[in-house]
Write a structure and sequence with these properties.
Porin, 8-stranded antiparallel β-barrel, EC 3.1.1.77, OMP/PagP_B-barrel
Length: 182
């Protein structure tokens, strides 16, 4: 089995096992838009909050959630040719750690590293991925309003972590709007 096939198999298995973890209803839904490296991103997601809280102190803690997303990327320089576009679907699952108030309202910072599967290999603006499987890591900050509306900003990087060369990576700046049902 080739390294790329093994990575793809592991990604699919981890996505399905992660989806099986939350046995309860969805805690929130999100919409995101971003741009980077001549590529636009739109993404929808569902989230399941973790019940676990770590390092509780002064009304704050580290908690987190599972983030299951489906995205569309649209590159504007397919095969590095201006005016040619490439559209990809991207399925992702990410465990996200969030430093937040105990009420889950107000300011927060978060970080996560997840698994993503692209519908085809990315080839845009001189950057060509060698695998369809990519890790997606992000750092972000935001604010949760009293009505459970969450407005956030994040920087996200996609890369295969050196599974196969070339591994140029792609970076996005993303704005997120999320609504919590709790």
């Amino acid at each position: 089995m080739r390294t790329g096939d093994l990575a793809l198999s592991l990604a699919v298995a981890s996505i399905f096992s992660a989806v099986a973890i939350p046995a309860r209803a969805v805690d929130s839904v999100s919409l995101e838009a971003g741009h980077g490296d001549s590529t636009r991103l739109v993404r929808a997601g569902v989230q399941w909050n973790w019940d676990q809280q770590w390092w509780k102190s002064n009304g704050t803690h580290i908690g987190g959630y599972w983030d299951l997303t489906l995205a569309q990327w649209r590159g504007s320089r397919y095969r590095d040719i201006g005016g040619r576009s490439q559209e990809l679907a991207v399925l992702g699952i990410t465990p996200v750690f969030r430093f937040q108030s105990d009420s889950r309202k107000g300011f927060y910072i978060e970080a996560g590293i997840g698994a993503n599967l692209l519908s085809e290999r990315y080839d845009n603006d001189g950057k060509r991925f060698s695998t369809r499987f990519q890790f997606g890591d992000h750092v972000g900050l935001g604010y949760v309003f009293a009505n459970n509306l969450d407005l956030g900003l994040k920087i996200q990087h996609f890369s295969n972590a050196g599974i196969k060369k070339p591994n140029p990576g792609v970076d996005f700046a993303i704005i997120q709007l999320r609504y919590g049902f709790q």
